[in-house]
């Protein structure tokens, strides 16, 4: 369960990228399935080649931005349907990722990565012993708190930057372009470049998450991005259903919470005896379906109870009015 929270925080960065394209830009971007692997493959190849893992992760971020920007250009300048633009870029990235890696899988177990570097520095601080004593009442103590704490800080910093960006003049224009593109264009704003930059930023976060997941898992695989858009959407939808999304700040908190909750649900589901690791995609589909259906059922029940209360109040009011009329007539 502890590793699920760690993975959830890393996948939350990817979910923030999906939130940017799906909710802010209202763009169904399937590039995510390819750009996630692009980030992982760029980072893996650079690390194996002897590059600094932090520089490799930054390069993955740039590669993801480029992939998202191309999708944006296909849609805005090429006038291709948004869904088709993402699908075309996703297919193209599959071959590009194979070219980058030179093979379908690049192992990183023997390499120095961001995860190993952070863990090595963390051990020198002695914080594991302190945190172990603080949380001893919970009955469990992880081997190290390094990944959890570092990824939590990194994710919250990215969330803070995204919140700040959405409050700037540019961010407000970006949100407006997603809500009503013709209206923003009527104010002489260049909506095409807003969409290109927004999709670039979205996929930059996705690729960065892919680079971290590759280093966390110890490998980069050309198929590791399959279904990633569904996982991102699941995190966004679960987060919004559980925590709400009345403002951007609350929505980004919800996305992070949704990513962690999704990982915990997945871990609990895989503990069921008749379920296997290969059922992950099926479980993901059921989680998304439940996240979509349950809030609607709750809302329908709430509306039904509200109407029932209103009908009872009207009935009581009519009874009182009738009693008063009868009293006056007497």
- DSSP helix count? 13
| Span of the ends, CA to CA | 74 Å
**Shape, per Cα inertia axes:** globular
Rg over CA atoms, rounded to whole Å, is 24 Å
The total of beta strands comes to 2
Q: Name the beta content range.
A: under 5%
Provide the spatial order of strands within the biggest beta sheet. Answer: 1-2
Helix content: over 70%
User: Structural class of the helices, strands and pairings?
Assistant: mainly alpha
Main sheet makeup: 2 strands, antiparallel
Parts with pLDDT < 50 across at least 5 consecutive residues? none
What pattern of helices and strands is seen along the backbone? Answer: HHHHEHHHHHHEHHH
Task: Report the average pLDDT across residues.
Answer: 84
Characteristics:
mainly alpha, 330 residues, globular, 13 helices
Explained architecture:
The chain is an all-alpha fold and 330 residues long. The chain has 13 helices and two strands; from the N terminus they run ααααβααααααβααα. The protein has a two-stranded antiparallel ribbon with strand order 1-2. The termini are far apart.
Question: Would you kindly provide a brief summary of this structure?
Answer:
The chain is mainly α. The chain is built from 13 helices and 2 strands; from the N terminus they run ααααβααααααβααα.
